[in-house]
Every structure is written in C-alpha cells, then in structure tokens.
Amino acid sequence: QKQAEQIWQKIGEQLIQEAKPNALKTVKASLICEAIVKDQDIKISDEELNNEISKEAERMNATVKQLLAHYKEDGINNLKYRLSNEKALDRVIENAEITTVEKPFRA
Fold first, then answer.
1. Is 21 helix (H, G, I), strand (E, B) or coil?
2. CA 82/CA 50 separation, integer angstroms
3. Which of 27, 58, 70, 88 is deepest in the core (most CB within 10 A)?
4. 57-86 pLDDT, tens per residue?
5. How far apart are CA 37 and CA 89, in angstroms?
6. Residues 81 and 44 sit within 8 Å (Cβ to Cβ)
7. Strand, helix or coil at 107?
8. What is the pLDDT of residues 7-63, one digit of tens each?
C-alpha cells in the first residue's frame, strides 16, 4: 500500500502540473466573461432559460419537471451563469474585427 501511495503521489503531482496551464486559461476566460457580463449588463430572460432547460431535458431524455427537480436553485443559477457567459462570447464575436496578417515564410 505504501508503494501505491508513493506512485499515486508522483503521478498526481504530474497530473496537476499538466492540468495547470489549461486550468489557468479556463479561469482567465471565465473572469473575462464575467467582466463582460457585468459591463454589458447581460441578463438571461425567463424565456431563454426555459428554452435551454427544455433543450437539456430533451438531450437527457428527461422531462422538464425531472430536470428542474435535479437542478434545484444552485443548478438553475449555474445554468444562468453559463448562458450569460455564452451571450457575452456571442457579443464579442459579433463585435470582433478580424484582421488577417500574413506571416513571412521561414524555411
């Protein structure tokens, strides 16, 4: 058992180091989205929320009532958070000005 713990400790540290860059990117992206949501006063309407709940229920092969029972208040708040972040990203994409830059060929 001690050997297994040592192996797990070594592998666990390696997994943490490998996951860290992606985790940092995810946190940064979330913070940026939150700032956009706040700055742009992005809200999720009841209609948007209900449409998403219906879609998710269909994907999960469940009824809306079952899904709502599963979500409870925290799940609904998480869904609103996700939808508001998606809306923020949509606004960024809509307002983005894309510039193509040619990179010189390097042999």
1. helix
2. 14
3. 88
4. 999 999 999 988 888 878 899 999 999 999
5. 9
6. no
7. coil
8. 888 888 888 889 999 999 999 999 999 999 999 999 999 999 999 999 999 999 999
Structure tokens at 46: 């009841």
Query: For residue 89, with 0-12 CB atoms within 10 Å meaning exposed, 13-18 middle and 19 or more buried, which class applies?
Result: middle
Instruction: For tokens 């994907």, name the residue.
Output: 59
Alpha carbon 84 to its chain's center:
10
CA–CA gap between residue 53 and residue 62 (Å, rounded): 10
Contacts 24+ apart (CB under 8 A), 36-45: 36/88, 36/91, 36/92, 37/84, 37/85, 37/87, 37/88, 40/88, 40/91, 42/84, 42/87, 42/88, 42/91, 43/84, 44/80, 44/83, 44/84, 44/87
